[in-house]
Known about the structure:
- By secondary structure, the chain is of the alpha+beta class.
- It contains 21 helices and seven strands.
- Strand 1 and strand 2 (75-82) form a beta hairpin.
Amino acid sequence: MMRHFLGEETLRKGLKNYLIAFSYSNAEQDDLWRHLTEAGRLDGKHIDVKMVMDSWTLQMGYPVVTVTQDYSSKVVKMYQQHFFLDPNATVPSDDPAQGFSWHVPVTIVTAADRSYDKPKQMWLNKENKTVNELLSPQNEWILVNVRQTGYYRVNYDERNWKLLITQLNTDRMKIDIINRAQIINDALTLARAGYLDYAIAFSATEYLVGEQDYLPWVSCLKALDFVDAMMQSSEHYGLLKSYILRQLRPIYIILGWGDSSTDAHLQQLQRVEVLQAACYYGHDNCVENAKQIYTRWMANPEQNKISPNLKIIVYCNAIRYGSAEEWDFAWEQYKKTNTASEKRQFLTSLACSREPWILNRLLEWSLSSPSIRKQDGDHVMGLIAQNPVGRYLAWNFIRDRWDDIRMRYAGVIGGLSHLITSLTRSFNTPFELRELESFIETNKDTMTLGQRAFRQAVEKTRANISWRKRNVAAIVKWLENIRK
Length: 484
């Protein structure tokens, strides 16, 4: 962010002077800010770097900048507020933060002036900021945080969101690739946090049916992880699954399974993301390819010709849509390999099974089998908890074997916390909340290590329940309309 508001040459000059000045002595952050401010002053940029950066480094969180337009007077207003992912979250009263406002470097382009390399720049300080006559003709979109060089999210009035979405649908290339990813991620995250309607957020993903670049796709799929987790057990999950599959089909055909080391790096990354999603949501061709590749390997175990990039996809989906035979083969390969990364891949894939008895066996082995290292056992249980079939199996197992689990991971840093977080990540019903609270109350005398993680799990579950009440009906309505 500093590189963009100071300029790269100015930043380099300030850093060089700072390193020379303190090459044989101690320094504080204010010393760095002072040298950067001086370098800026010599280059004609009168920016108080300490004032700006103290607002980012001495308080928690980051802002959401809301942009609203008066389309008749062409006045654009911006204001900032502390971004909370949970709408019910509050700031601790004893936090020494300075009012939770920031000096925000704002960059702007419009439909008429798409100067992505040299956008309009201004500062949004600790008070509301009004920009006059920023737009010329009416009905033009405005885009803030060009190429996402600032550490903040951006919300707009409904009309501007719709103008941006229309632009994506008609000619996406007029919006920079980084900003296409930003629009999707901001929209879905703001909707999750209650700043934006999910109807608008999902509308921003419609154009992806024609998108071929990596960043917008990975931005969307990562942001949708939460929606997927919240709707997995809903009777409406099929609507979400069908919509995502519809969007994925064109890019799946383009990328295919032909992974090659000569492919561009981003294309390789995109292929992994798209194939993972397509197989996860049950794309027939994706699943069949994974099973066939795995079957060929099973026929010749000594010759694993599966592309390293695609191994986890093949393993997981062959096991997910296969039988005990595929699982047992992977287990034997897991025991044979001495490579830590391969062991991790196999363990992750073994947790993909949809057979309850296999998952229960793996849960038991995570505590008792000498083949699973102590530091990997909590990872296995957490993975099974994230499997829709294994969600309640893992919860029941941990309640039943709590004493064994807490004793086993008493000395593993973060082991219990990671396990509890993974286990309760998808809890989102009043029944699950009551069960969680009941378990905590029953075992409160033995929770000295996991107490904080369980308290956070209760807060997270309440937030998830609230999210479902606020959003599921709106998401279902949008998905039903788009299906017609």
